[in-house]
Specification:
Blueprint (H helix, E strand, L loop, with lengths): L2 E9 L2 E8 L9 E9 L2 H7 L9 E2 L4 E8 L11 E4 L2 E2 L5 H4 L10 E2 L12 E4 L2 H4 E3 L6 H4 L5 H12 L6 E5 L3 H10 L6 E6 L3 H10 L3 E4 L5 H8 L5 E6 L4 H10 E9 L11 H4 L5 E4 L7 H9 L9 E6 L3 H10 L6 E5 L1
Parallel strand pairs: 11-12, 11-14, 12-13, 14-15, 15-16, 17-18
Antiparallel strand pairs: 1-2, 1-4, 3-5, 3-9, 3-18, 5-6, 6-10, 7-8
Helix pairs in contact: 5-6
Family: Belongs to the zinc-containing alcohol dehydrogenase family.
Pfam families: ADH_N, ADH_zinc_N
InterPro entries: ADH-like_C, ADH-like_N, ADH_Zn_CS, ER, GroES-like_sf, NAD(P)-bd_dom_sf
Length: 346
């Protein structure tokens, strides 16, 4: 059987670049995609550190673009040679959840890549239900233009939609990492009067937030974000808060920033329990939403990128060949040289 290189999980703190079997068509709805560009995501770090369990021997990674190499007999929308962006969420298109658009809970899909199915930090990947999960990349766009539509941009946009931003709203984004920066770019599309980025200690990331459209940035290590946002909102608090970290501190910050009657949208991946103090919140009339991205806006996001309404290429700070993936993980994990998004090239 033909071989390829891939990043393989063996145990917490033990991933390796190894030679493994190249994937094959298993079902007639499958496609084999030659990966041209992939990334490391925060969820991959949860896997690396044992905070999210996966089986040993799994190829990790779920955010990627590539070129179709082979399609199954029932794939009708794509052909070999097509450039595609691939959703991190697999969807069959026919089950109860897919029919209502809740692709994250597809009975034969959901988050598979790098979770229960071999993922995309590899030279090739098998894509189930290819007609549903793959999206053509316009000729005028490069890999780096659309690289994030399959995961972090979809995730951020999902959080923004859940927040139901209205024209004139004041929006606070908690977390200035890659998802938070995507949330800023997405929130701009909905007409807020002000976007406030809140980070803890990395001023470089807050400067990136300003470049992507934040009107104000708050470094919580230097000033109280609650007090600052009240100063900016006549003492009320933010109309909308979008939490993009997935930690106890960021969650508590988000809940403290929202005004009575406001909306809080959680899109961070939580690996530990957090407390919901209903005895303090019950009378604030807050709407709270969270969930796993459905990745159902990829066609629209590609068009927004094509129309120059979203440009996230500045998030890419480091690029490594696939064989240097361990170094790439170190750079991303430790935020070396102000790393934002780290790209792998097979």
């Amino acid at each position: 059987m033909a071989k390829m290189k891939a990043v393989v999980f063996h145990a917490p703190e033990d991933i390796r670049v190894e030679e493994v079997d190249k994937p094959q068509i298993v079902k007639p709805t499958d496609a084999i995609v030659k990966v041209t560009t992939s990334t490391i995501c925060g969820t991959d770090l949860h896997i690396l550190h044992g905070e999210y369990p996966v089986k040993p021997g799994l190829i990790i990674g779920h955010e990627f673009v590539g070129v179709v190499e082979q399609v199954g007999a029932q794939v009708s929308k794509f052909k070999p040679g097509d450039r595609v962006a691939v959703s991190c969420i697999t969807q069959c298109g026919t089950c109860f959840y897919c029919k209502e658009g809740t692709y994250a809970h597809c009975v034969d899909g959901g988050w598979l890549f790098g979770n229960v199915l071999d993922g995309a930090q590899a030279e090739y990947v098998r894509v189930p239900y290819a007609d549903m999960g793959m999206h053509l990349i316009p000729d005028e766009l490069e890999d780096e233009d659309v690289l994030f539509v399959g995961d972090i941009l979809s995730t951020a946009y999902f959080g923004v939609e859940n927040a139901r931003i209205k024209p004139g709203d004041v929006v606070a984004i908690v977390g200035a990492g890659p998802v938070g920066l995507c949330a800023i770019a997405s929130a701009k599309l909905f007409g807020p009067s002000r976007i406030i980025a809140v980070g803890r200690r990395n001023f470089g990331r807050l400067e990136a937030a300003r470049e992507l459209g934040a009107d104000d940035v708050v470094l919580s290590a230097n000033e109280d974000p609650v007090q600052k946002i009240k100063e900016l909102t006549d003492g009320r608090g933010a109309d909308v808060v979008i939490e993009c970290v997935g930690g106890t501190s960021s969650y508590e910050t988000a809940m403290s920033l929202v005004r009575p009657g406001g909306r809080v949208s959680l899109v961070g991946v939580f690996s530990k329990p957090v407390e919901l103090p209903l005895e303090k919140l019950w009378d604030k009339n807050i709407t709270l939403s969270w969930g796993l991205v459905n990745a159902n806006r990829i066609p629209e996001l590609i068009q927004l990128i094509k129309g120059k309404k979203i440009n996230l290429r500045s998030l890419i700070t480091h690029t490594f060949p696939l064989e240097d993936a361990l170094k790439a993980y170190e750079v991303f994990d430790k935020k070396i040289d102000n790393a934002l998004k780290v790209v792998l090239k097979p």
